Amino acid sequence: MKIQLVGLGNVGKELCELIEEKRELLNSLGTNIVVVSISDSKGTAVAQNGLKLKEVVNYKRLGWQGFRNYKSGYGALDAIRDVESDVVIELTSSTPNGEPGLSIIEAALKKRKHVVTSNKGPLVVAYKNLIKLAEKNNVKLLYEATVAAHLPVFCMLDSCFKADKLLTVQAILNATTNFIIGEMEAGKSFQKALNEAIGAGWAEANYSDDVDGIDAARKVVILANALFEADAKLEDVKIEGIRNVGPMIEEARVSNRKVKLICEILKEKGRLKMSVAPKLVSLDDSFATVNHGNMAAKFRFETSKEVFVTAHFTSPKQTAYAVLNDLTKIAL
């Protein structure tokens, strides 16, 4: 299976390492991966017979100096158009308008190439159009990693609950805010907890999307569209972040509860109600066990009732694993 990788940031590098680390296992599953191109924002490394991934990552760190397979100025769209492949893995950064990921995914689907992505942006702004484009061209668009890294959401619901009706979703989907709230519950101020989150690598220097609930809201939109066949947009989500969560944490301390930034999707009178907001949860609530940078989701079904899943998130390697797992589905 010939792969084109677009985006060589933290997740992209981890994916390259995972492919090499698990190559023997992947081969035993019938997933023989040959990476024929890797694009970053400045150009593309190309080798139709396959790139040596460790070599590529090393040259990336050196700014591509001396790497003969790298074509500066030869972008991802050029490579998708010119290079023969089966799958495009799109790992560029999420943006409000979905670009450049949106154009990359569209180009790949139009070339009848399967797509795996961890990028929320394109799915937030054009989910239905992308799904229709994939169906029209008889290829797959998989996006498990967009919502909660390796936490099983789409794959679990698709495999285990085909004959049940999903009623509501509640989730903790932003590891950064969960980390910050935990530090504040330990007695730190919001600013000190935020600084520690940045220092520990949980938060980016540009942290507003996390603490203001925007990142979590984007994930709510994807869930609503994928699980409830909605046509939701970011503006449809009621959003409250954690900048002013201090008094709620004090209230939780007095009442022996915890605070969590809860994403929620439920139906009221036939319409979806979507929200992201900090909420008080009792200590016997399953969400109270989701601490540090962990994430979780609670699904309520008509027949199966409540199903709760959680996952320990430590690094971009878990996100890379979700991408790799999607890749194995295409190979099957």
Question: What this model shows, in words?
Answer:
With 332 residues, this protein is an alpha/beta fold. It has two domains: 2-150 and 317-331, 3-Layer(aba) Sandwich (Rossmann fold), CATH 3.40.50; 157-312, Dihydrodipicolinate Reductase, domain 2, CATH 3.30.360. It is built from 14 helices and 13 strands. It has helices at 10-21, 23-28, 53-61, 76-82, 101-110, 120-136, 145-148, 154-160, 175-185, 190-199, 208-211, 214-227, 246-255, 316-331, and strands at 2-6, 34-39, 43-46, 70-72, 87-90, 114-117, 141-142, 166-172, 237-239, 257-268, 271-282, 295-301, 305-311. A seven-stranded mixed beta sheet has the order 4-3-2-1-5-6-7, sandwiched between helices. Strands 9-11-10-8-12-13 form a six-stranded mixed beta sheet. It is globular, with a radius of gyration of 20 Å. It starts with a strand and ends with a helix.
